[in-house]
Design goal:
By secondary structure, this protein is α/β, with parallel strands linked by helices. The chain contains 8 helices and 14 strands. The protein binds calcium ion.
């Protein structure tokens, strides 16, 4: 049974969601206070998080970014904010899907099933290895010779794509396409920022030159 944590400050919606998910056979839990949400989520160890954007004292996107530092648990935003910029920000900070209130119940449930199916990870390997680097997909970390570094979701996707094409030149457009396929919305500039951070992290584990730039063509592992 999949466990879903609801982070929602409106008690009516919170109870409606809990009831709805319970009826669908999910184990639903709602956070009880909004001061230590990350810790409550860690303790609950859910399979999926439903996250509101407007929370008391903080914004759901900053919470999402905080969760993403240590966890790849899928996050669906359920929010009354319907601007493209809110949606873009939420997805680029690590959200897996975005649903606006008032939500259509069958659509909400279908999206939850889709995200759980996509992130269930049964068919995916747990680790990838290439050029002395090991990528731990479920943990979201990379390691080389006993040194570990944590990766963001974007960094993990970029690195796993490069590792899957080790030795080949991968264009920036290929990387952007791959990230789009994974529901991560990213532009050219964001890719550059991610690449710089990724190289800094690889340097920390002793692989400063793992990703080479092939001028005018792209990147190569
Ligand atoms: Ca709210």
């Amino acid at each position: 049974m999949s466990k879903i944590v609801i982070v929602e400050d409106d008690p009516v919606i919170r109870e409606e969601l809990a009831l709805l998910l319970g009826n669908e056979g999910y184990q639903a839990a709602a956070v009880s206070s909004f001061s230590d949400i990350s810790q409550q989520i860690r303790e609950a160890a859910p399979d999926l998080i439903l996250l509101d954007l407007g929370l008391p004292g903080r914004d759901g996107t900053s919470l999402c970014a905080e969760i993403r530092k240590t966890s790849r648990t899928p996050i669906i935003f359920v929010t009354s904010r319907d601007s493209a910029s809110d949606e873009l920000r939420a997805l680029s900070l690590g959200g897996d899907d975005y649903i606006t209130k008032p939500y259509n119940i069958p659509v909400l449930l279908a999206r939850i099933r889709a995200v759980l199916r996509r992130t269930g990870g049964l068919a995916e390997p747990d680790t990838l290895e290439a050029k002395g680097l090991t990528l731990h997909l479920a943990r979201g970390t990379a390691s080389a010779e006993g040194r570990f570094v944590e990766l963001t979701r974007n960094e993990l996707k970029i690195l796993s794509y490069l590792m899957g094409h080790a030795g080949q030149i991968v264009s920036r457009a290929d990387l952007i396409d791959t990230l789009w396929d994974s529901q991560i919305y990213i532009d050219d500039n964001t890719l550059s920022v991610n690449m710089t951070r990724l190289r800094t992290k690889l340097k920390e584990i002793g692989l400063p030159n793992l990703i080479k730039t092939r001028r005018g063509m792209g990147y190569q592992l």
